[in-house]
Design brief:
CATH topology of the largest domain: Alpha-Beta Plaits
Order of helices and strands: EHEHEHEHEHEHEHEHEHHEHHEHEEHEH
Number of strands: 14
Distance between the termini: 23 Å
Low-confidence stretches: none
Structural class: alpha/beta
CATH architecture of the largest domain: 2-Layer Sandwich
Shape: globular
CATH class of the largest domain: Alpha Beta
Length: about 450
């Protein structure tokens, strides 16, 4: 299924807005340019894009007021907004945060960094869409849920892991953060930081890189967090001296959420943290209604999984929606072959399937859905994921399943490693749910 991220580009300079649409096109964005600020609400409300990109310069209204109006309207409040400003000052960031903008960048930011910063917002949009689609599917199963207030997020009282050597600039930054709304926990050692973030609870991580330090350790820690199935959602902000800020998209390629200058003034850093923490907590707010759809009438006998009937029904709903919006959608499957040598209804078989279900449902993204498709088959429906991303996730989960110890009901370990087959495919245009399921079964290896 061909994928396009639909975006409304709003800016007072019509030619610049059109140029921005053209800039976004090679990265898979289908854009519509709007130059009249008062028209933005109607355009966005009617077209329901995945993202809104706002640049300043409207003749008729302030850009922050445009954003505020979108976020206050029930029909458009869920759509992520990124703003491009002439100067990303502390005051501009504060205004953007108050207007509930999701991210802000300078207008002259290099294209590759704009793309990198847009990607998390695309994912946030996918989550919003999946909440609505899954509630639709649950409603057909007789489950009514209300998501009023899900957008109300408090980004205060943040516990932040601060990683950096105890140099003068870093120590000054930590002291300034301690005097602010944040609760920084200092860890000078990058390797120990990796363990701490896995074993403690943090809203975000800040990695400080001073002038005389290489960027390598920061990038290693970023990659470690992103590649850990339990941590890949944690926001990571790199605060770097100018030599590292100029590294371009390299930090983003390794998993950084944001890169800001390392200066004694914490204005940009603290504003960046506020944006990232609010986005993270919104994701968890969205997690609530998603998990609430798993109840009698939609759930499988294995805890944590949706039933085969609901999985197929929801998959068909997503495919129908995807045809209209040209959205990526992939399906992964895990066939637990060890169970084939057992009676499928035996205590041993059920115990193994439940452990596999626990791992799979715990290792997928919040917006993904784990369900039962057959006696030994567990699927993961991955909205917004291209086939390459789905295969990466499938291989990661398969590795975890094959390298963990499974236990039988009496507590004894499984005599041999779990044997399973797995595969993932992307949905094709016009494909039915049954056709997609058949194709992923054929891909199992």
């Amino acid at each position: 299924m061909a994928s396009l991220t639909n975006v409304v580009v709003a800016g007072g300079n019509a030619a610049a807005a059109v140029d921005r649409v053209e800039m976004l096109r090679p990265a898979g964005f289908a854009g519509l340019a709007v130059s009249n600020g008062l028209d933005v609400q109607s355009y966005v409300g009617e077209r329901q894009p995945d993202l809104v990109l706002i640049e300043d310069g409207f003749d008729d209204v302030d850009a922050f007021e445009v954003a505020r109006t979108l976020k206050q309207n029930e029909d458009t409040s869920h759509i992520p907004i990124i703003m491009l400003c002439d100067e990303v000052s502390a005051s501009a960031l504060a205004d953007g945060f108050d207007a509930k903008v999701d991210d802000m960048l300078a207008s002259d930011t290099p294209d590759e960094i704009v793309f990198a910063r847009l990607n998390p917002l695309v994912r946030l949009s996918t989550m919003h869409s999946e909440v609505r689609r899954r509630l639709d599917s649950a409603r057909k199963a007789g489950i009514e849920l209300d998501i009023e207030g899900v957008q109300d997020v408090d980004a205060s009282n943040c516990r932040v892991l601060f990683v950096g050597t105890e140099s003068g600039p870093v120590a000054a930054l930590v002291e300034a953060l301690q005097a602010s709304e944040f609760n920084p926990v200092l860890e000078p050692d990058h390797f120990k930081a990796g363990a701490r973030i896995a074993n403690e609870t943090f809203d975000a991580a800040v990695i400080a890189v001073d002038d005389d330090e290489p960027l390598d350790k920061a990038l290693f820690l970023c990659a470690h967090i992103r590649n850990n199935p339990r941590l890949f959602n944690v926001p990571v902000l790199i605060a770097a001296r100018q030599n590292s800020v100029d590294a371009g998209e390299a930090p983003y390629a390794q998993g950084a959420s944001m890169v800001v200058p390392l200066t004694p003034d914490i204005g940009e850093l603290s504003a960046g943290l506020r944006f990232l923490v609010r986005r993270q907590r919104l994701r968890w707010n969205l997690h609530g209604p998603l998990t609430a759809t798993l109840q009698s009438g939609t759930a499988d006998s294995l805890n944590g999984l949706y039933s085969e009937a609901f999985s197929k029904s929801h998959l068909a709903h997503l495919l129908k929606f995807g045809v209209r919006r040209r959205r990526n959608l992939s399906l992964a499957m895990f066939s637990i072959q060890t169970v084939t040598g057992l009676d499928a209804d035996s205590e041993d078989a059920i115990c193994l399937m439940q452990q596999a279900a626990d791992w799979i449902s715990g290792l997928i993204r919040v917006e993904d859905m784990a369900g039962r498709l057959g006696t030994i088959e567990i699927c993961a429906i991955l909205p917004g994921a291209a086939e390459r991303e789905a295969l990466q996730a499938t291989n990661r989960i398969t590795g975890v399943l094959q390298n963990n110890e499974f236990k039988l009901p009496d507590g004894s370990p499984l005599a041999a490693p779990l044997f399973l087959q797995s595969g993932a495919v992307a949905a094709a245009q016009g494909e039915s749910a049954d056709e997609l399921i058949d194709r992923v079964r054929q891909s199992l290896t």
